[in-house]
Design a protein that fits this description.
heterodimer; A: alpha/beta; Nucleotidyltransferase, domain 5; 5-stranded mixed sheet; 12 strands; about 25% strand; globular; B: alpha/beta; 6-stranded mixed sheet; about 45% helix; binds zinc ion
Chain lengths: ~240, ~350
């Protein structure tokens, strides 16, 4: 059974990490044993995260010939991403963590995409990751290298961040959607557009080895909830 | 009885994160986390606020329910969840959580209908439901008359509101009167000091040619608002208690009249009333009076089981397990407009 030397003490531990992320249109799940990705599943369907995630988890576990109770930790993308889909991954991770008594490691979704860009050899210098935030906005962050985020994550209208991103190499659907602002968008077929759980879980393994902290498995919403306060009537009675 | 099914139910269709645990017809735990206070300043439930609160509350509420019931998750015979109808984003949090627990624990998953659960919950209070049962469900989201020949598989809609739900009308009238949100408890409280016959507000859809079992509360709400506005324009004091009592009387008069009529027409001698508005004291007393006159047995669960909760979902799940109904598949969708005739949702790959 493969082991992983974890943190500064290089303690050898057996790991089997299940990762998933529902913060982009991809419903993506992967399994990693500390040495390599054993199985992965990625389907792009922005409206069916809730239906597709659990069958995808079941599929990667079966493909790897193992079961959920053998998993030692959950890795989950915490966004930013459209909320309804994002919550599917986070509540699933929290429930698995509770039911199995295993840790849940959160990672910024954009960091997973940045790591994938690095794996594809597309991140030599500084670059930008941007995903679709809907409502004509993007979630975005700047990186010095695939493992080093320098600004963000933030949510903005592309035009408002043009100064910071125009001409900078960029990956992600947000960059693909607004090429007039993200002029450095990578059109290479290997460039990541959505999240890949295989990249996310590989990043998690690197972070575990380095003894780095993870994020708590809580959503990065970045926006306050929409809520209209009705005009209403003035109270006629003292409270 | 230890051989009765032990089922955990999850309810997230609106603003309550409910987790209940039942063994057969016995309630073991009913844990609730409500986001109602976060919605109060908006005067109504804000879907995104509700969904965020469900995510935060889900695991702690499950843990609380298990502790309260004194059972281990591994002992469960199934996990039931509201698959619809309700707020789409809110439902999805509960459905996703239920799938994850069911999958992680190796338990069957039952996606069930929220309305049928409102009926079934009375088994926890008054034992097995006679079949068929007539049900009047009234809340901020629903106003329905349902005939249930089989609570796990055959629930038929006889009538429902054509505009506002009854509870919605309570909220809107409470706002007109400046009584805050949610409106039901405030109207009920003020009504006790008021005269229900002070103002004759209209009874919607009670004319000879109107649909017999459908409801309409929009006209009533407008009539109340107009009456109150008129008083204010005159510079007169608004008799809040009389307005509340007269409005409440108009609502419960129509609800009970149509429910009794439905029982008589269909030869059903049991009426159950559920939903948040079933907590209304005047609805309870008038229904009792009219059922007694008509020789109908009235079943109304205690108020905490009438409002949205996880126990009602667990109750229906347990009944499904007991009757050997098929479980749902892992691709079970959350369906915000699920029809009441779909008592359970099998999932796509069934
Ligand atoms: Zn309800």
């Amino acid at each position: 059974m493969p082991t992983l030397a974890v943190g500064a003490s290089r303690t050898l531990v057996t790991v089997l990490l299940l990762a998933f992320d529902t913060a982009t249109p991809a419903v993506t799940a992967a399994l990693h044993d500390g040495r390599s990705v054993l199985a992965e599943s990625t389907e792009v369907d922005a409206r069916r995260h809730g239906e597709l995630l659990m069958p995808a988890v079941d599929r990667v576990l079966r493909e790897a010939g193992t079961k959920l109770d053998a998993v030692t930790g959950i890795v989950v993308g915490v966004g930013p991403g459209p909320y309804t889909g994002l919550r599917v991954g986070l509540v699933t991770a929290a429930a698995f963590g509770d039911a199995l008594g295993i840790p849940v490691h959160g990672i910024c979704t954009l960091d997973g995409i940045a790591y994938a860009a690095g794996q594809a050899g597309l991140a030599e210098g500084p670059f930008v990751v941007a995903t679709d935030a809907r409502r004509k906005e993007v979630y975005w962050a700047r990186y010095d290298s695939p493992r080093s985020r320098v600004t963000g994550p933030a949510v903005d209208r592309p035009a408002d961040i043009a100064e910071q991103v125009t001409g900078v190499p960029a990956v992600g659907q947000g960059a693909v959607l607004y090429p007039e602002v993200f002029t450095g968008v990578r059109t290479d077929p290997a460039a990541p557009v959505h999240q890949s759980a295989a990249a996310l879980v590989a990043l998690a393994v690197v972070k575990l080895e380095a003894g780095e902290d993870f994020l708590p498995p809580l959503p990065l919403y970045l926006r306050r909830p929409d809520a209209q306060v009705p005009a209403g009537y003035k109270a006629v009675l003292p409270k | 009885m230890a051989d009765e099914p032990l089922v955990l139910g999850i309810e997230t269709s609106c603003d309550e994160t409910g987790v209940g645990i039942v063994r057969g017809h016995t309630l073991l735990a009913d844990a609730i986390a409500s986001s109602v206070d976060e919605h109060a300043r908006f005067g109504g439930v804000v879907p995104e606020v509700a969904s965020r609160a469900h995510l935060e509350a889900m695991v702690p509420t499950i843990q609380r329910a298990l502790k309260e019931a004194g059972v281990s998750a591994t002992d469960l015979d199934g996990i039931a969840v509201t698959a619809g109808p309700g707020l789409a984003g809110a439902l999805l949090v509960g459905v996703s959580a239920a799938k994850a627990y069911a999958y992680a624990l190796g338990k069957p998953l039952y996606g069930v209908n929220h309305l049928a659960s409102h009926i079934c919950v009375d088994q926890l209070e008054h034992g097995p439901l006679p079949e068929p049962t007539m049900a009047l469900l009234v809340s901020g989201g629903h106003s329905s008359l349902l005939l249930a020949p089989d609570i796990t598989g055959d629930v038929r809609p006889l009538g429902s509101t054509i505009d506002d739900a009854a509870g919605e009308a309570f909220d809107k009238v409470a706002r007109v009167l400046g009584l805050g949100f949610p409106g039901g408890p405030a109207i009920d409280r003020y009504s006790r000091e008021g005269d229900p016959a002070a103002i004759r507000f209209p009874r919607g859809l009670t004319g000879g040619r109107d649909p017999i079992y459908d409801f309409s509360f929009s006209g009533l709400k407008t009539a109340v608002a107009r009456w109150v506005e008129g008083k204010r324009r005159e510079g007169a004091d608004v008799p809040v208690a009389d307005v509340a009592a007269s409005f409440q009387e108009a609502v419960v008069d129509v609800l009970t009249r149509k429910a009794i009529r439905a029982c008589k027409d269909n030869g059903v001698d049991h009426l159950m009333i559920g939903g948040g508005v079933a907590a209304n004291s005047r609805l309870r007393s008038l229904a009792k009076e009219r059922c007694e006159d008509a020789g109908i047995v009235l079943r109304v669960p205690r108020p905490k089981l009438c409002t949205d909760n996880g126990a009602m979902v667990a109750a229906l799940g347990a009944e499904m397990v007991a009757r050997g109904r098929p479980a749902s598949t892992l691709d079970l969708p959350a369906d915000s407009s699920l029809q009441v005739t779909e008592v359970s949702v099998p999932g796509h790959t069934h």
